[in-house]
Write a structure and sequence with these properties.
By secondary structure, the protein is α/β, with parallel strands linked by helices. The chain is 32% helix and 19% strand. An 8-stranded mixed sheet has the order 2-3-4-1-5-6-7-8, sandwiched between helices. Helix 3 packs across helix 4, helix 5 runs antiparallel to helix 6 and helix 6 crosses helix 7.
Length: 237
């Protein structure tokens, strides 16, 4: 018995804990024809109070639908109250790595709140990667205050919104997060780009490799040419 305890102590040093799964939080501002400065989409897709049919959430390439159908991810139950302005939450577990992805669908009119919460997560949440998906609201309004970094941890950030590198540069720098993927021009912020980038991130690929995965996926769905997709999607500063 004493020999067994020595083995246990050698294998699990005092104070150590098992590695917990990495965590991703995705903030989705629902497309909203009325309350956002977007090029109008069909009414059913652009109702910012209807996550089920929304372009960025419940439609074929919306975050919830796309990850629901993705072979590498499995939906898991979500419990507890939703944050203010979040209409729906979806949680997925990566089948191989057990990484957890939490995605929140924010009312379209509350896009500013979605962006603020994304930046707050990038600045200090208990996650490894924060992502924002939706209209670039910083084209239409300014933040009330810049985010403040709350710890020394460096998180990764993905911002799938039009011209996000230009508009999010200052706020993201204030969070201390590393810009893993953002954009230089107009884009369709649909979930296949996010999923491709996460495939590379989970495989611990370089930022350049992750960007290439994302560009190839964007070209595959948008038929825009892979060179154009590479110009659109960039990494780092």
């Amino acid at each position: 018995m004493r020999f067994l305890w020595i083995i246990v102590l050698l294998g699990f040093p005092c104070g150590a804990r098992a590695d917990r799964p990495r965590r991703i939080h995705v903030f989705v501002a629902l497309a909203d024809n009325v309350n956002q400065g977007i090029v109008p989409v069909p009414t059913k897709l652009g109702n910012g109070d209807d996550p089920r049919n929304n372009l960025y959430w419940g439609a074929a390439y919306g975050v919830k639908t796309f990850f629901d159908r993705h072979a590498a991810w499995a939906a898991v139950p979500s419990s507890g109250p939703l944050p203010p302005n979040v209409l729906e939450r979806a949680v997925f577990e990566h089948r191989e790595t057990k990484t957890l992805l939490t995605a929140d669908a924010y009312r379209g009119v509350a896009i500013k709140n979605a962006i603020e919460n994304f930046l707050a997560a990038a600045a200090g949440a208990d996650i490894e990667l924060a992502a924002y998906v939706g209209h670039d609201g910083l084209m239409d309004f300014s933040l009330d205050k810049m985010p403040e970094r709350t710890d020394a941890k460096t998180r990764d950030a993905i911002i799938l919104a039009c011209v996000s590198k230009s508009y999010f540069d200052g706020p993201l720098a204030a969070t201390g997060a590393r810009p893993l993927l953002w954009t230089t021009g107009l884009m369709a912020p649909e979930a296949y780009t996010l999923a491709a980038a996460l495939d590379g991130w989970l495989a611990q690929e370089s930022a350049t490799q992750i960007r290439e995965r994302a560009a190839e996926a964007y070209h595959r769905y948008q038929k825009c040419g892979v060179k154009a997709a590479r110009r659109l999607l960039t990494t780092g500063r």
